[in-house]
Amino acid sequence: MKTSLINTVWFSEKRKNVLLLLYEGERDIEQIKKSLNITTRSIMPQMKTLKNNNLIKQEQDQFSLTTIGKTIVKSMLPFLCTSRIVEENKDFWASRNFDAIPPHLFSKINDLGHYFLIEPDINHMFELPREFVDNIPKSKSIVTFVSYLHPTFLSLYLEAARSGANISLFVSEKALEKIKKEYFEQFNELMKITNITVFLCKENPKIPMVTVTDWFCYICLFNEEERYDHRDIISFDESSLKWCNELFDYYRINSQKLCQITEVE
Q1: Cα 134 from chain centroid (whole Å)
Q2: Torsion sign across C-alpha atoms 138, 144, 150, 155
Q3: Integer Cα distance of 261 and 255 in angstroms
Q4: CA–CA gap between residue 19 and residue 45 (Å, rounded)
């Protein structure tokens, strides 16, 4: 009895790995065995199953994907990438609040690619994360949304702006009120620099901070209780930068440029 395509692709790790390998390009059987670290005896029945289901083809000693095989593998990849992202840190993803991420971008969460989870250092819990602080001065362009304003945040961005970085800073209404009360002079100094643009985000996303530069992105999310627990994500993948820039395109729609602010008396 012929097995379904779902069973053929997903119910065998060997068959799935062969398909993913051949998606990169054609291989002979020795290359397949070496890449997957398997024996002839164990792989040949799987190759026969894939051929019988018209997922792979053989021309002389070279194996490659059929048109159907390519289509199926192309559809598999986003699911596998998303699964990998979640599997690496299940507890983190299960406890996040994703209200700030629009559905069309949440469906592409796999674009975060190879990321690193930054766990809070109990000895430096109330400091800006070192991974963030170290990489901001190396950036030539910086786009940031912030609602959770750290005391040293503006100083860091002042230094970056004075060094020539082009900065777009999005602030929530609550963050702006805090700025007016506690950081008015420092923020006004920031706004006078020509290479920085400040926006007020009218629709306050439920997110502490998200930043994308020309070479890394840094994402802070609230947990399910809408608390910031200092567990963050940093990624250097090109796809993650594109994903974050699309997120800012979404935020920009509900934002207005600030030219000046008045101090709260």
Answers
A1: 19
A2: positive
A3: 15
A4: 14
